[in-house]
Design a protein that fits this description.
The structure holds two protein chains of two kinds. Chain A is built from twelve helices and 23 strands. Chain A is of the alpha+beta class. In chain A, the strands form four sheets. In chain A, strands 1, 2, 3, 4, 5, 6 and 7 form a seven-stranded mixed beta sheet that branches. Among the domains of chain B are: 80 residues, PmbA/TldD fold (2-Layer Sandwich); 114 residues, no CATH class; 102 residues, no CATH class. In chain B, the strands form four sheets. In chain B, strands 1, 2, 3, 4, 5, 6 and 7 form a seven-stranded antiparallel beta sheet that branches. Classes of the chains: A alpha+beta, B alpha+beta. Chain B: Pfam families: PmbA_TldD_1st (PF01523), PmbA_TldD_2nd (PF19290), PmbA_TldD_3rd (PF19289).
Chain lengths: 481, 449
């Protein structure tokens, strides 16, 4: 053991390449020799940059560098996770020993330490030609110029403007996974996002409106922003909402717009289909696989590697290649989203869904690009089926609790009267019970679109895509004034 | 803690000198933490970490400032961070010049707490605590099938600030907490969940079993539930719920938000009546009951008690050194450094200035809503618009009966709510996010399922 800790391991600090094979193999061997059933190292390096433009001025350039590692050790069905910033051999060995100690495991003196036979480096950086991504991204100057152009367009387009904010970020992340089962895999992820917001005030009337777009695996994202289209949409939305009346609370039939409307499925159902929820006994769908849990018109997917999807990954944070997972087919629950711990504890097959924000979190089963598949109805079919209801054109964030009760905010809502969209209303919140509402999604449109978002849960905040066509919910409770 | 600040000061000075950087400052943290949770009377999730990170600001010859955050504190990592901050300074504002705090000239090391930090408790003890509490909860009622959210944790942390002029500030803290949120399933009824969070200065002082008992009581209180008719009701907020709401709309006291025109207030709002005339709000970072007290902000400015609202009238905004200079006020010790310095409150303390008012007990009222906790603030609060529509756990009070409400939202306008406060309880409660009595509001919209 002492010989090992004194050995001068030379791992390349600047890249998670093959130089990490030997030291990680030895550490994994130490863990196995001590009696752990499974050990997994996760190394991560990050290079993040964000820029903020407010009312025509660059007010913040925020670069951030990160480097860290975590080790997860399983003994039977129990696991623990220890993380550090110290990526030296000694630093990694300290966290391994700490994790072994948590399981009351120690390496006996003179015990033979097996070297774990890791697979040849499965390098998605080489396979998918990602090594130049960081260099190909917009420079700080280019980023500022793109955002400034956007911000000036917002100012020009928006009436009663108090402030116009434009924010953009690029998040580059290199990860390496090595486990005692022989996994040795490296990947680079690139996520970029633009967020624009206007705040308008006219006497006592106030409103704010925002649009976010995001992309993964595309270094040219900021070079292809449609400034005109975004600023006009923002101005139109804030213009409608500034003088809108508050909605009266009650139960209404509701049409949810496509794109970010998919957040209803994400919150009301998606989280409850993660095996993390089964592990905590906190999903009403726990034993419903193969049963009808939604309206027969509803089919839903979670895709790991949708081209440029904000939640796309080539491998998950446990080194498993991403998959396309059918969640619900014509109302029948087909699969849960499952990571390693979920598989061990619930028996569901792994789906390449083990994700985490960074090395400070153990992975958990998480959504990636989740959407309701398109149906056959046109928007006109849906609107004409409603005498009095609500059109939720733009949704905000939401959440779901262990009881299945969910809620989310509506940023832009309109009244539907006699089949027609009539006037804007503000202050609406949709609330309901997931199992009940899933049975009430009676119409799916033919206009599936997706939208970028962030999802916070037990393993931190991860990038996701939500999506759906226009859908009709026969009845939902709308909180208002 | 393992980080040697003196060594870090020496090392960063050398790196700065090699890169011809004359002016810089650094705020950093180091944290060692362990936590455990239980499931079915067995260990469920055990985590431990030792982490440090810092944010570095450098100024160029034109007084433009650039920043970099990093968790790579090796010599190579620090050099890379200095280099990156120097490059980003070229994009720093020429109009809005950031400077060192006028109240941070301490040349010596200060550990304000001067308390001996204990070694962190072995994680096995945290685990036993979590398992015993979970067992106690599961045995308390046949309806309690699981405790999906439970954790026992202890952490030691240090915060430090130093700058190229020789100011150095360091403080250390230790904190422990636990929470338990049981899920109860009654036959033919919807599942119900509630729970409790407890904080203490260390694991040794943490009363885990009392926390479990409070979680049991709160969850049992919600078993017998009823739906609520939609409409307007007088609403009584618990201390936690009211403080959550005030923190969610803290832009009204935030000087940076005011300069950015992203606040419910304006520069000339000082002196104006914002709330009911006996409503007082103080930010009290050094209050003895604040478990996470900080003696200096991220610019090294000493923190202090600051009156925000007195007798309903707005008295002060919270400031960084930049906003204070820009608006002509003294610094208040509320800065968070970054490429753009932001400000935020520390530990809010709400009280009434009218001690002679006749005491009220909400249990004696009719047709009233008691809001125990609000949730989903990230989704249900529109802080720029001033409106909120939030799911809550609470009770319907009528005929001396207190019945849990099935599922509902409370909605309103924050500034109107402050003016509609008609009674502030005389008993103050210390909760994790501040100190407050219960607060009564005339009328808010309630929507039930």
């Amino acid at each position: 053991m002492d010989n090992i800790s004194q050995k001068n391991h030379i791992m390349h600090a600047a890249s998670f390449d093959n130089t990490w094979r030997e030291p990680l193999s030895i550490l994994l061997g130490i863990g196995r020799a001590a009696g752990a059933d499974f050990i997994e190292f996760f190394l991560q390096r990050g290079n993040y940059l964000s820029a903020l433009i407010e009312n025509g001025q660059v007010t913040a350039i925020n670069p951030a560098l990160s480097l860290g590692a975590g080790v997860r050790v399983f003994k039977g069905k129990e696991d623990c996770y220890v993380s550090t910033n110290d990526l030296s051999f000694k630093g990694l060995k300290i966290i391994l020993e700490k994790a072994l100690n948590i399981h009351a495991l120690n390496l006996e003196h003179n015990r033979i330490i097996p070297e774990i036979n890791l697979e040849p480096l499965r390098d998605y950086v080489e396979i998918k030609e990602k090594s130049n991504w960081l260099a190909q991204c917009s420079s700080v100057r280019e980023l500022c110029d793109s955002l400034m152009q956007m911000n000036l367009a917002q100012q020009k387009s928006t009436k009663h403007l108090q402030s116009a904010t434009t924010n953009g970020f690029r998040d580059w992340q290199e990860v390496l996974v090595a486990s005692s089962e022989g996994i040795f895999a490296r990947d680079i992820r690139l996520n970029q996002s633009l967020s624009t917001q206007v705040f308008c005030e006219d006497g006592a009337h106030r409103t704010s409106s925002h649009i976010r777009s995001g992309d993964a695996a595309n270094p040219n994202f900021f070079r292809k922003i449609n400034t005109q289209e975004i600023s006009e949409k923002l101005a139109e939305s804030s213009g409608h909402m500034l003088h809108a009346d508050f909605i009266s609370s009650g139960n209404y039939p509701v049409i949810l717009a496509n794109q970010f409307g998919g957040v209803i499925f994400h919150e009301a159902c998606g989280h409850l289909l993660e095996t993390t929820a089964i592990q905590r006994n906190s999903t009403p769908f726990l034993d419903k696989k193969g049963e009808k849990i939604a309206h027969e018109n509803l089919t839903a997917w979670d895709e790991g590697s949708w081209e440029n999807g904000f939640g796309s990954i080539d491998m998950d944070d446990e080194g498993m290649p991403a998959q396309k997972t059918l969640l619900i087919e014509n109302g029948i629950l087909r699969n849960f989203l499952c990571d390693r711990a979920g598989h061990l504890l619930t028996g569901h097959p792994r789906t390449g869904s083990g994700r985490r924000q960074n090395y400070t979190f153990a992975p958990a089963s998480r959504m990636r690009n989740t959407y309701i598949a398109h149906g056959n109805y046109s928007k006109e079919d849906m609107f004409s089926s409603i005498d009095k209801g609500i059109y939720c054109k733009k949704l905000g964030g939401g959440s779901v609790g262990s009881t299945g009760d969910f809620n989310f905010a509506v940023e832009e809502a309109w009244l539907i009267e006699n089949g027609k969209v009539t006037k804007p209303v503000k202050g609406a919140t949709l609330i309901g019970q997931a199992p009940e509402v899933m049975q009430r999604i009676s119409m799916s449109g033919n206009d599936l679109e997706i939208s970028a978002g962030f999802c916070g849960s037990v393993s931190g905040s991860v990038y996701v895509t939500v999506g759906q066509p226009h859908i009709k919910v026969d009845s939902i409770t709308v909180g208002g004034r | 803690m393992s980080l040697q600040i003196e060594q870090l000061v020496k090392e960063t000075k050398k790196i700065a000198s090699d890169l011809n950087i004359e002016k810089f400052d650094i705020f950093g943290t180091e944290k060692e933490e362990s936590s455990a949770s239980a499931k079915d009377k067995k260990p469920f999730s055990l985590t431990s970490s030792i982490r440090s990170s810092l944010i570095l600001r450098v100024w160029n010859q034109n007084q433009q400032m650039g920043v970099t955050r990093t968790s790579n504190l090796t010599t190579e990592g620090l050099s890379e961070a200095f280099d990156l901050a120097k490059s980003s300074a070229e994009f720093g504002s020429r109009e809005n010049i950031y400077e060192f705090s006028p109240e941070c000239h301490t040349k010596t090391m200060i550990n304000h707490e001067k308390k001996e930090l204990k070694e962190l408790t072995p994680i096995q003890e945290l685990m036993h605590g979590a398992i015993s509490a979970e067992e106690k909860i599961l045995n308390a009622s046949l309806d309690f099938k699981s405790v999906p959210y439970n954790k026992v944790s202890e952490a030691k942390s240090s915060r430090f600030y130093f700058n190229s002029e020789g100011a150095i500030k360091i403080e250390e803290n230790q904190i422990s907490f636990c929470y338990f949120y049981p899920l109860a399933h009654e036959k033919d009824r919807k599942p119900r969940q509630s729970g409790h969070l407890e904080l203490a200065s260390s694991f040794a002082n943490l009363d885990i079993l009392t926390c479990a008992e409070k979680a049991i009581k709160k969850t049992k209180d919600h078993l017998n539930y009823t739906s609520i008719q939609n409409g307007k009701y007088p609403v009584v907020f618990s201390p936690e719920a009211f403080l959550d709401l005030v923190n969610a709309f803290a832009n009204f006291m935030n000087a940076q938000n005011i300069l950015d025109k992203k606040s419910l207030c304006h520069q000339d709002s000082i002196g104006q009546a914002l709330a009911a005339n006996d409503f007082c709000l103080v930010d009290s970072p050094l209050h003895p009951l604040n478990m996470s007290k900080s003696y200096f902000d991220e610019e090294g400015t000493p923190t202090r008690e600051l009156t925000i609202i007195e007798n309903g009238v707005l008295k002060n905004f919270i400031h960084s050194s930049f906003t204070a200079k820009k608006m002509g006020y003294a610094v208040t010790g509320h800065a968070n450094i970054g490429a753009k310095v932001t400000v935020s409150p520390h530990f809010l303390y709400i009280k009434s200035s009218n001690k002679n008012i006749e005491k009220k007990d909400y249990l004696n009222e009719n047709n009233l809503i008691y809001v125990e906790s609000v949730s989903a603030l990230h989704a249900g609060v529109n802080e720029l618009q001033g409106s909120f529509s939030l799911p809550f756990d609470g009770f319907y009070i009528n005929d001396k009966q207190k019945v849990s409400i099935e599922a509902a939202t409370v909605a309103g306008d924050f500034l109107s709510l402050l003016k509609d406060i008609y009674y502030i309880g005389d008993e103050e409660f210390a909760v994790p996010n501040g100190i407050s009595p219960i607060v009564w509001v005339k009328s808010l919209s309630i929507t039930g399922l």
